[in-house]
């Protein structure tokens, strides 16, 4: 208002503006923002300490919202205003609330093929708009790698599997600690020995830069198979339904192992085609021989060319186990014959059956498979207009997902990936081959990787929890792009669930898997298929700009709070106007937040909002 009334000559006005800008930049340069402090009391029960508060210190320059940030007057006022509302806590009975699995609206769905155990989200009127509490006595999880073998009972207070599966070395309880000996129904002597047996049966090396980097564990139990593969540099996506084996996925997550709720029923799995180097089922109770082999067909879709399918448990080695399985030899023999026939129809090669383990391998291309189809008939290929990578509420179909065309019978369809760890930084075949169009090139990929290394360095400068190695284990990237955030953290003891939103312009999840990382699809207008308190840190890059006018900002933030652990951190990166609105809501959610500048300085409209969730329980 003052500038409007002053009658200054133009040169004088320019000098005033220049002096103001120089004064501001000098203040920012001489007073950088310190990182959010990380608690150093990891061994102390979580309920005895206060959450790390991101309050400004004497060396911290709080950001204002004057003209150099470009925020509107309304947003400047909103930044200092009270929160839009104080979000209430849900009842204690909702401490393990999973909105899209196992709820009453799910039970209205058909029982055939377990459709009622798939994702079924509540109608808007039935959504719970409250903060999901942690159970009383909740403690910060043990740090990796100790967490692989133990978790606090208070964090997952369930004993059903202790009683049912203790003899099989799944899980045991020792006072206030749950122990995971590393066993399973088909590997009571331990996962390490079992993994060695699989490698011998497949004739490959599991780990050490071998042919397998990404794996899928269907019906994972407490995810011991995936947990023990981590020490061999094999990253496993484990899933299981929310069923009578209550809390099995919750146990896996408390161990610091990648896992999510899921089931093979009527919909495709939420992963792209050609994602996994190996798929595994250890007595997973999936009816592979039924529905004309529909579930084996889906495994074929998500397996990479040349990938392996491992099956242990019924009906493999039925001659030895039929009495213990309480099934007739005729029934088990018929089931095995059906599985063998489906595998042959998929053009898989049976590598070997060794004891209780059978291994098949998918072809590296479909040249000979298509030729045999033309001559002999059998299971047909899906129409070319179907998107092989589509995996969000897409029905399974009884057809083979065709592999990309090749020049010759010895070529790997879609391009061959490098061995780990080179595949992380090498241009993925989908990019090198131009599958994502002209906007995503090899040069784009290289620049993106470098950009995220700089960004993660900046994050570690403003988040003490992320900077402290071992403090965080389970990370979520809500808008993963090419996976650059996860790639920049590869040397830290963390794993990242890379999410490609259904609202994204480009489907990049296949690229993420080609880099040797894992992830899933997600519509952020709905809840994730996971338990509360899954993640230690959440990263949200331009997510709220992407979902503007698609759904309510508060609903997305409440879902973030549900899946975030007490004292966990959220790092938002977005336009400053968007961040101001987010902060206003977050201030009413028992979060402590502050906005800091972009790594390129204060003149950038894009800013970073760092929020820390308070510790509180039911």
What's the name of the CATH homologous superfamily of the domain at 422-613? Vaccinia Virus protein VP39
Number of helices: 20
Shape: globular
Structural class: alpha/beta
Beta-strand content: 15-25%
Question: End-to-end span in angstroms?
Answer: 51 Å
Strand order, sheet with most strands: 6-5-4-7-8-10-9
Q: What is the makeup of the main sheet?
A: 7 strands, mixed
How much helix, percentage-wise, in residues? 25-40%
**What are the segments in which pLDDT stays under 50 over at least 5 consecutive residues?**
1-8, 22-34, 36-73
Which CATH C-level class of the domain at 422-613 is it?
Alpha Beta
Task: Please state the second-level CATH architecture of the domain at 422-613.
Answer: 3-Layer(aba) Sandwich
Mean pLDDT: 88
Rg value: 26 Å
Break the fold down into its secondary structure elements and pairings.
Blueprint lengths: L1 H4 L4 H21 L42 H7 L70 E3 L7 H6 L6 E3 L2 E3 L11 H12 L11 E5 L5 H6 L5 E6 L7 H7 L4 E3 L14 E7 L11 H9 E10 L5 H8 L3 H17 L3 E6 L2 E5 L5 H10 L45 H4 L3 H4 L9 H21 L1 H4 L6 E4 L6 H5 L6 E7 L7 H6 L4 E4 L12 E7 L1 H4 L6 H11 E12 H11 L4 E6 L9 E8 L5
Parallel strand pairs: 4-5, 4-7, 5-6, 7-8, 11-12, 11-14, 12-13, 14-15
Antiparallel strand pairs: 1-3, 2-3, 8-10, 9-10, 15-17, 16-17
Report on the architecture of this protein.
Among the domains are: 189-376, Rossmann fold, CATH 3.40.50.150; 422-613, Vaccinia Virus protein VP39 (Rossmann fold). It has 20 helices and 17 strands. The protein has helices spanning 2-5, 10-30, 73-79, 160-165, 191-202, 224-229, 248-254, 294-302, 318-325, 329-345, 367-376, 422-425, 429-432, 442-462, 464-467, 484-488, 509-514, 543-546, 553-563, 576-586, and strands at 150-152, 172-174, 177-179, 214-218, 235-240, 259-261, 276-282, 303-312, 349-354, 357-361, 474-477, 495-501, 519-522, 535-541, 564-575, 591-596, 606-613. The strands form three sheets. A seven-stranded mixed β-sheet has the order 6-5-4-7-8-10-9, with helices on both faces. Helix 8 (294-302) links the parallel strand 7 and strand 8 (303-312). The two termini are 51 Å apart. The model is unreliable at 1-8, 22-34 and 36-73 (pLDDT under 50).
């Amino acid at each position: 208002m003052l500038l409007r009334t002053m009658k200054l000559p133009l040169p004088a006005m320019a000098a005033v503006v220049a002096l103001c800008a120089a004064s501001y930049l000098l203040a920012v340069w001489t007073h950088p923002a310190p990182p959010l402090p990380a608690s150093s009391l990891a061994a102390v029960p979580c309920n005895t300490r206060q959450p790390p508060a991101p309050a400004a210190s004497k060396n911290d320059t709080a950001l204002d919202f004057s003209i150099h940030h470009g925020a509107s007057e309304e947003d400047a006022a909103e930044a200092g205003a009270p929160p839009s509302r104080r979000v209430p806590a849900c009842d204690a009975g909702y401490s393990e609330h999973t909105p899209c699995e196992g709820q009453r609206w799910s039970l209205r769905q058909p029982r055939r093929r377990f459709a009622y155990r798939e994702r079924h989200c509540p109608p808007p009127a039935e959504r719970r708009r409250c903060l999901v509490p942690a159970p009383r006595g909740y403690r910060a999880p043990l740090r990796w790698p100790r967490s692989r073998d133990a978790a606090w009972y208070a964090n997952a207070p369930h004993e059903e599997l202790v009683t049912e599966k203790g003899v099989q070395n799944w899980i045991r309880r020792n006072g206030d600690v749950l122990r995971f000996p590393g066993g399973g129904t088909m590997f009571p002597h331990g996962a390490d020995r079992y993994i060695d047996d699989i490698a011998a049966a497949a004739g490959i090396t599991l780990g050490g830069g071998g042919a397998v980097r990404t794996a899928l564990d269907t019906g994972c139990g407490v995810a011991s198979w995936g947990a023990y593969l981590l020490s061999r540099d094999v990253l496993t996506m484990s899933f299981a339904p929310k069923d009578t084996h209550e809390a099995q996925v919750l146990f896996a997550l408390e161990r610091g192992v990648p896992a999510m709720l899921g089931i093979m029923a009527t919909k495709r799995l939420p992963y792209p085609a050609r994602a996994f180097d190996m798929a595994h089922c250890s007595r997973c109770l999936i009816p592979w021989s039924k529905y004309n082999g529909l579930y084996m067909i889906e495994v074929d879709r998500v397996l990479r060319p040349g990938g392996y399918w491992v099956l242990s448990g019924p009906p493999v080695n039925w001659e030895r186990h039929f009495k213990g399985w309480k099934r007739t030899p005729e029934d088990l023999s018929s089931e095995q014959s059906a599985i063998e026939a489906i595998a042959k129809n998929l053009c898989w090669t049976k590598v070997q059956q060794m004891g209780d383990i059978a291994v098949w391998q998918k072809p590296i291309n479909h040249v000979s498979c298509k030729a045999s189809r033309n001559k002999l008939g059998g299971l047909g290929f899906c129409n070319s207009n179907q998107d092989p990578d589509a995996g969000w509420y897409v029905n399974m179909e009884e057809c083979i997902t065709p592999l990309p065309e090749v020049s010759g019978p010895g070529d790997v369809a879609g391009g061959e990936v490098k061995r780990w760890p080179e595949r992380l930084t090498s241009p993925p075949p989908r990019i090198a081959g131009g599958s994502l169009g002209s906007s995503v090139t090899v040069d784009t990929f290289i620049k993106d990787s470098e950009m995220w290394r700089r960004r993660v360095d900046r994050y570690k400068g403003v988040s003490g929890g992320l900077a402290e190695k071992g403090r965080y284990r389970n990370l979520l990237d809500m808008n993963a792009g090419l996976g650059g955030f996860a790639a920049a953290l590869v040397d830290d003891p963390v794993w990242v669930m890379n999410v490609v939103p259904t609202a994204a312009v480009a489907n990049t999840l296949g690229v993420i898997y080609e880099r040797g990382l894992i992830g899933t699809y997600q519509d952020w207008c709905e809840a994730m298929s996971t338990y509360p308190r899954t993640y230690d840190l959440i990263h949200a890059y331009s997510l709220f700009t992407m979902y503007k006018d698609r759904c309510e900002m508060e609903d997305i933030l409440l879902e973030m709070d549900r899946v975030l652990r007490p004292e966990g951190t959220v790092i938002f990166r977005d336009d400053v106007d968007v961040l101001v609105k987010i902060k206003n809501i977050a201030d009413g959610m028992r979060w402590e937040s502050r906005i800091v500048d972009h790594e390129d300085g204060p003149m950038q409209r894009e800013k970073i909002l760092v929020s820390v969730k308070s510790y509180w329980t039911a």
